[in-house]
Amino acid sequence: MQSALANLGASLTSTDFWLGLGWMLFKIVMILVVGKIVMKLWRLMVVRVISHRTMRMDERRGKTIVSLLLNVMRYVVYFLVLLTILSNIGLDVSTLLAGAGVAGLAIGFGAQSLVKDVITGFFIIFEDQFGVGDNVMINTNLQIRGNVAEVGLRITKVRAYTGEIHIIPNSQIRQVTNFSKSNSLAVVDVSVAFEEDLQHVYEVLKQVGLEVQAENENVLGEPQVLGVQMIGPSVVVVRMTMECKPMEHFGVGRFLRYKIKEAFEREGIEIPYPKQVALFPGQPSAEEKQAAAGS
């Protein structure tokens, strides 16, 4: 015991020991710095290559490919950096790799879900089911709705409207509804009174739709006044539609309703709303007042 302590003390006071330790730490730091530089250079190269090909692929898919390539390269660089550090501190990397192969075979049976995640992620990207920036709903039973923030080989991140980030393993993605694949349709139902001339209502709605089309760049097609959608107890509901850019139908619909209300007020078209008539005991009714006025 005393000899071991003596050897340790001699090592700690040895100049060669501290020089060797310092050189080892310096090499580890340099390995980490080189790994960081490689990642930055890889990012710049990937972004530049993808940006030069934006004419042949849409921006959404380009962002998805960039995200995927950066994730793959990150794992590769981290693995190589770890092996280099272990080699520099004196560990036999070949022995570790051989042991890792045996351990990996055993772990593989318990990592089937990880393999499923990677395979599913590959097909999601290869088939272009959805990409970064798309508005999607994943798995109807889970009702996960939002914009895709990241698509990786193992997980997909979806940002909800209220800011939450849903992290979903790719193997759990069973059904995807992509709202950004094609143009949207703004559907607006307008209620008018029974007494209104429907032909006049149609003309006003058509004119309002043309004005909205001219003012709003998100509108792609001419307005369509489809006609009477429903007859209620006290209203006639008229439906009109407008084709818009993907996911712009909410804003176009709100703007269209605003313009319709302005036009109806200007044209004197009544929008029915609930009314209440209060009768107090002892007061004559409207019929009695009319009869009294006539006499």
Written description of the protein model:
The chain is an alpha+beta fold and 295 residues long. It folds into three domains: 2-110, Helix Hairpins, CATH 1.10.287.1260; 122-178, SH3 type barrels; 184-267, Alpha-Beta Plaits (2-Layer Sandwich), CATH 3.30.70.100. Helix content is 54%, strand content 17%. It has helices spanning 2-12, 15-52, 59-88, 93-110, 112-126, 198-215, 249-267, 286-294, and strands spanning 135-138, 144-151, 155-159, 165-169, 176-178, 184-192, 224-231, 236-244. The chain has a five-stranded antiparallel sheet with strand order 4-3-2-1-5. β3 and β4 form a beta hairpin. α2 packs antiparallel against α3 and α6 (198-215) packs across α7. The radius of gyration is 35 Å and the shape is elongated. The model has no long low-confidence stretch (mean pLDDT 78). Residues 114-181 form the Mechanosensitive ion channel MscS domain.
Please provide the ordered H/E string of secondary-structure elements: HHHHHEEEEEEHEEHH
- Write the CATH fold name of the largest domain: Helix Hairpins
3D shape: elongated
Looking at the overall shape, the CATH architecture of the largest domain is Orthogonal Bundle
N/C terminus separation: 128 Å
**How many DSSP H or I helices?**
8
The radius of gyration over CA amounts to: 35 Å
Give a quick account of the main beta sheet: strands, pairing sense, barrel closure. Answer: 5 strands, antiparallel
Would you report the number of β strands? 8
Portion in strands: 15-25%
CATH class of the largest domain: Mainly Alpha
Uncertain runs are: none
The residue fraction in helices comes out at: 40-55%
By helix and strand content, what is the structural category?
alpha+beta
Q: Residue-averaged pLDDT, rounded?
A: 78
